[in-house]
Structures are given as structure tokens and as C-alpha cells.
């Protein structure tokens, strides 16, 4: 299992989130779609974003070798969004998630990053299956998951969250 790995696609670099990304994470977490579809995490300052990264990103990276990644466009080093694998203690298989700043949506970045992360999950982390969770009204995420080969498994929820979510699943059999 690799830790702190950096992965590349034709247009993108994926690397684990660092505390130096706190200002970017703060901006991303406070976009209207993040708040609507992921939820308000009450992160309102750069310092709170640093604490969030240290408390959520680093422990998972240390324990499992994977976590949330910043997606960076190669041509100009612009941070576009995040895409990550999340291990939840009460789940058998990790789930994949993604979020992008509004100006970078609809350009194929989420698909490109997610596909690379699925390959990495299989090849580098030995994972055989992934889940994904999204709100029913988040049609763009649902469409992306279906293009990535995920199938709707049913209704679910995440720990410490009462929201009813669509639970998607995919075997990493490519």
C-alpha cells in the first residue's frame, strides 16, 4: 500500500490534501453546491479548515493510505476541486466522493479524477469494491457515478447524518 502518493492523468495531478490547502478547502466547502449536497461543516476560517484537514484527512491517510485528494490542473497548477476515498468505520467498502469549484464543473475533470482514483484503489490499495453516496436531487453526481459504472444499490445514510442518500456500488473488476 502506498502512502502520500501523487497520481496523474493526462490533464490532472491528484495528491493528498495538506494543511497548506486550507484556504482552498475553505473556499470549496463554502460553495453553494457543497453546502446543499454535502452539508455545511461550519468551517468558516482558514484556521478551522486546517483543523478540519488535521482531524479528518490525516488520520485516514495514516491508517489506510488513502484519503481526500486535491485535484490540480497540470497546465497552470490551478486547484480545481477534490476527489477522494473515504473509509467509514461502520462500512465494509470505502466510498468515493468528489467536489469541484463551480467554474470547473462540466469540463470532465471529476470524471477523469474519479476514474484514476478507481484504478488506484484497485491497483495500489487492493480494493475490490467501492460505494458512493449522494442526494437524489444531485443529478450531476448521479449521472457521473453511472458513467463511471456505479449501480444504484438502494437507500442509505452516512454515520452521524440523518440525510437519506442514494447508495451506489461498483466492483473494481476492470
From TrEMBL:
- Sorted alphabetically, which InterPro entries does this protein's record hold? GNAT_dom, N-acetyltransferase
* Domain N-acetyltransferase: start-end pairs: 12-173
* Entry GO MF terms: acyltransferase activity, transferring groups other than amino-acyl groups
Under PANTHER family, the record lists:
GNAT FAMILY, PUTATIVE (AFU_ORTHOLOGUE AFUA_3G00765)-RELATED-RELATED (PTHR43792), N-ACETYLTRANSFERASE DOMAIN-CONTAINING PROTEIN (PTHR43792:SF1)
Q: What is this protein called?
A: GNAT family N-acetyltransferase
Q: Which organism is it from?
A: Winogradskyella luteola
Amino acid at each position: 500500500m502506498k502512502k502520500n502518493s501523487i497520481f496523474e492523468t493526462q490533464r490532472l495531478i491528484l495528491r493528498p490534501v495538506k494543511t497548506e490547502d486550507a484556504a482552498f478547502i475553505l473556499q470549496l466547502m463554502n460553495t453553494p453546491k457543497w453546502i446543499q449536497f454535502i452539508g455545511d461543516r461550519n468551517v468558516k476560517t482558514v484556521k478551522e479548515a486546517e483543523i478540519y484537514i488535521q482531524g479528518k484527512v490525516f488520520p485516514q491517510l495514516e491508517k489506510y493510505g488513502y484519503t481526500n485528494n486535491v485535484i490540480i490542473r497540470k497546465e497552470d497548477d490551478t486547484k480545481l476541486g477534490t476527489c477522494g476515498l473515504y473509509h467509514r468505520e461502520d462500512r465494509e467498502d470505502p466510498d468515493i466522493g468528489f467536489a469541484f469549484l463551480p467554474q470547473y464543473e462540466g469540463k470532465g475533470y471529476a470524471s477523469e479524477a474519479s476514474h484514476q482514483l478507481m484504478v488506484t484503489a484497485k491497483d495500489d490499495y487492493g480494493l475490490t469494491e467501492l460505494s458512493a453516496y449522494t442526494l437524489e436531487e444531485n443529478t450531476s453526481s448521479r449521472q457521473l457515478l453511472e458513467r463511471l459504472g456505479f449501480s444504484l444499490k438502494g437507500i442509505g445514510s452516512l454515520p452521524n447524518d440523518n440525510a437519506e442518500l442514494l447508495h451506489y456500488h461498483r466492483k473494481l473488476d476492470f
